[in-house]
User: Fold this.
Amino acid sequence: HAQHTYLNLAGMAGSVPVELFGRNDFPAMTEAPYLVSLGPYGFYWFSLESRTAPVEEAVRPSETTPPPSIIVRRSPEDLLKRSYRSRFEAALLRHARRSRWFGSKARQSRNATIVEVVPVPMGEHLAFLTVLRVEYAEGEPESYLIPVAITHGETIAQITSEAPWTVIATVDVKGSAPGTGYLAYDALVSADFRTALIEMIGRRRSFRGQHGTVSGLRTRGVFTRTRGSSQEKLDSVPMRAEQTNSSVIYGDRFILKLYRRLEEGTSPELEVGRYLTERQPFANVTAVAGAIE
Assistant:
């Protein structure tokens, strides 16, 4: 027969029982007796997990809470090492959930893991194409692309005042003097990084990550004809109207669309655009000059 009982679990108050087969949350434990009901021959197999408060969505102009602060041992590159990675993943998730391109704000995120990092040279520094896999309490996980750059000095004040929504975390090296810290931010706000993206396509560059390779591909004849002289500098400006992706305008020549949510396979938009550019040209459709895959 089905039965119920009350368990004294006050010593575990605050923990959330998560049923291991379905990964469903049960009510959080409190100091009050915990009610459990079981059917005949039934059983539960729980994992007791802690739950932090969900990250609140914030509107871009009103960033009121300070970014996470991470202290590393030697250099900001330590963020990608095992000892600090979980804290950096939490900062990336916070940044993603506060961004307009994050599409699952209504879902409860359970975990976030960095599954790929691809270093990309930008000027004298490196940016990192970071793929963050987000798991939820219900439904399938999603993967998001977050380009990360790290800066220090006067640039920190410029970014925090002009583009506070791009800030991911402040980074301090243990034992360093005050005011000598670093800032991890969304690299798309950097002109050097935007130049690196268009040059990756134009020069067909490839960069190797931990598990794969990112390559720039040009559409035959279209990129060179549209770009013009390679000696001419193309000014770039991020478009402010973000939705599920981020876009960059390069002078009057190109618009680059950076997909934030990544999925397996070739994008249908890219596939159709290539077909109408290379195989069956159609004057009323914008030509595809290249892509990064």
Observations:
- Confidence is low (pLDDT under 50) at residues 53-62.
- The helical segments are 82-97, 154-162, 191-202, 222-227, 268-279.
- The radius of gyration is 23 Å.
- The first helix runs from residue 82 to 97.
